[in-house]
Amino acid sequence: MAQRTATIASSVGLHARPAALFVEAAGDTGLDVEIARPGEDPVDATSILGVMALGAKYGEEVVLTADGDGADAALDKLVALLSRDLDAEDHDRRINGDTARHRGQRRLGLRPGRQGGTGRAASRERAGHN
User: Fold this and answer.
1) Contact (Cβ atoms closer than 8 angstroms) between residue 38 and residue 64
2) H/E/C letters for each residue in 61-84?
3) Global confidence as pTM
4) In a 10 Å sphere around its CB, with 0-12 CB exposed, 13-18 middle and 19+ buried, how is residue 26 labelled?
5) What's the alpha-carbon Rg for the chain, to the nearest Å?
6) How far apart are CA 86 and CA 25, in angstroms?
7) Which residues are designated catalytic?
8) How far apart are CA 92 and CA 33, in angstroms?
9) What DSSP element (H or E) covers 35?
10) pLDDT at 127
11) Taking CA 98 as the corner, what is the angle to CA 94 and CA 102, rounded to the nearest 5 degrees?
């Protein structure tokens, strides 16, 4: 069984978006991965409720364990993920307009943000009332 210790770098701790990203990455390994605060019982790292219930905060250490082929490499990737401020990276993407919706709009040749709206102003504009 492989084991690693990681320090939570996300400013909000392992909560909400950072927890979801971690759980997704843990699931993608295909291994039985567990996470725990030192001295506490481990939880399934693929369970969003379990991971959020840990209450791991910024700067705290967590212990990751995995069993199976490729466990060492998988844990190295998970440690690298937890060592980044995932919440700030997500915030920067949203501020810079790099959201999934905006990427889709750009693929369609639209300028992200205002075009293609569904509100009253957009309907009036399409009907030629503005």
Assistant:
1) no
2) EEEEEEECCCHHHHHHHHHHHHCC
3) 0.69
4) buried
5) 20
6) 13
7) 15
8) 29
9) strand 32-36
10) 65
11) 105
What does the pLDDT look like over 81-103, one tens digit per residue?
A: 999 988 776 555 555 555 555 55
Q: Smallest Cα–Cα separation from 64: which of 54, 75, 73?
A: 75
CA 66/CA 2 separation, integer angstroms: 5
- For 105-115, how does the pLDDT look when each residue is reduced to its tens digit (9 = 90+)? 556 666 655 55
Tokens, residue 53: 């219930």
Question: Positive or negative CA dihedral for 23, 25, 28, 31?
Answer: negative
Q: Residue 40 has what DSSP assignment?
A: S
For residue 68, what are its two tokens? 């199976």
Contacts of 30 (CB under 8 A, 6+ apart): 68
Sheet of 2-7, strands arranged across: 2-7, 61-67, 32-36, 43-44
